[in-house]
Design a protein that fits this description.
- Keywords: DNA-binding, Kinase, Transcription, Transcription regulation, Transferase.
- Residues 17-137 form the Cyclic nucleotide-binding domain.
- By secondary structure, the chain is of the alpha+beta class.
- It has nine helices and eleven strands.
- The strands form three sheets. The chain has a four-stranded antiparallel beta sheet with strand order 1-8-3-6. The chain has a four-stranded antiparallel beta sheet with strand order 2-7-4-5.
- Strand 10 and strand 11 form a beta hairpin.
- It is globular, with a radius of gyration of 18 Å.
Length: 230
């Protein structure tokens, strides 16, 4: 087994849904799932394409977004390492409804659709996991719509960071988030400069600390409930 294969297997075995599988089921997952590399700015998948894989993030960061005909962009969410997405399109067997782009160089795990549906048919715990995943995703997207329409940028940045710590969707993140101010701006719909101002506000409130190479979360509950002062 090569280093990359070993690393992929390790990532699969650490997935939230992996411990519930039987050894035989896990063996098929490891045999069928493969890895691709997507450079910063590249497409992990494209809107309108036929969905062939369930997608997991081994390393890097991916954003799910769409572009209007005029070129205006809307970002739905960011997916950090440990997160998986695309189950909705696989279940509905419809073309993908969004683009997924790498915010930085990313290693991507791709589980073929046949393997995904085989697990769905043969593993009740995996089916239960997907129900929870879809429910969490729905709640996340409702929050995104609310944040975009009702909240100021400082609060949107706080909620954007907080959503990365959903243990159901994105397990395994520690308190230091390796994310740049530019990436925070892209995920929260703000310029890099405005996102930086918001992060400084949140730092002064004692909710986070700007460290070299990332952002250290000091008060997650505070980020979730933060509201900018009038």
């Amino acid at each position: 087994m090569t280093y990359n294969q070993h690393s992929l297997v390790a990532a699969l075995r650490s997935a939230t849904w992996a411990p519930s599988l039987t050894p035989e089921q896990m063996a098929r997952v490891e045999a069928d799932t493969y890895e691709t590399f997507v450079p910063k700015g590249g497409f992990v998948c494209r809107k309108g394409e036929h969905v062939e894989n369930w997608v997991g993030i081994i390393s890097g960061m991916v954003k799910m977004n769409n572009f209007s005909p005029s070129g205006k962009s809307v970002t739905f969410t960011g997916v950090p390492p440990g997160g998986w997405f695309g189950e909705g399109s696989l279940l509905k067997k419809e073309p993908r409804k969004y683009d997924a782009m790498a915010l930085r160089d990313s290693r991507i795990a791709r589980m073929p659709a046949d393997t995904f549906h085989w697990l769905l048919d043969n593993s009740l715990p995996f089916t239960r996991f997907l129900l929870m995943q879809l429910n969490e995703r729905l709640g996340q997207f409702i929050g995104v719509v609310e944040n975009d329409r009702l909240l100021d940028i400082d609060t949107r940045v706080a909620r954007c960071l907080a959503t990365l710590f959903n243990s159901q969707l994105y397990p395994g993140l520690d308190q230091l988030v390796q994310i740049s101010q530019e990436e925070i701006g892209l995920l929260s719909g703000a310029s890099r400069q405005r996102a930086n101002q918001a992060l400084q506000v949140l730092e002064k409130r004692g909710l986070l600390r700007l460290d070299y190479g990332g952002i250290r979360i000091l008060d997650l509950d505070g980020l979730r409930t933060f509201e900018a002062q009038p």
